[in-house]
Amino acid sequence: MDQSFLIMLSNLLHLHNSLDPTTSLLSDTLSSTTTTTTASSASSPSATSPTSLLYSSSIAPLLFFTIASVLSYVASTRPSSSSSPSTTADSPPPRPSSSNASDYSVSAFRALSTEHIWSLEAPLRDAHWRSLYGLSYPVFTTVVDKLKPHIAISNLSLPSDYAVAMVLSRLAHGLSAKTVATRYSLEPYLVSKITNMVTRLLATKLYPEFIKIPVSRRRLVETTQAFEELTSLPNMCGAIDTSPVKLHSLPNDQKFPGTYRCRYGYPSVLLQVVADHKKVFWDVCVKAPGGTDDATHFRDSLLYNRLTSGDVVWDKVINVRGHPIRPYVVGDWCYPLLPFLLTPFSPNGMGTPAQNLFDGMLMKGRSVVVEAIGLLKGRWKILQDLNVGLNHAPQTIVACCVLHNLCQIAREPEPELWKEPMRTELNQGCLIMRNRSISSGKV
Question: Is the Cβ–Cβ distance between 163 and 151 less than 8 Å?
Answer without folding.
Answer: yes
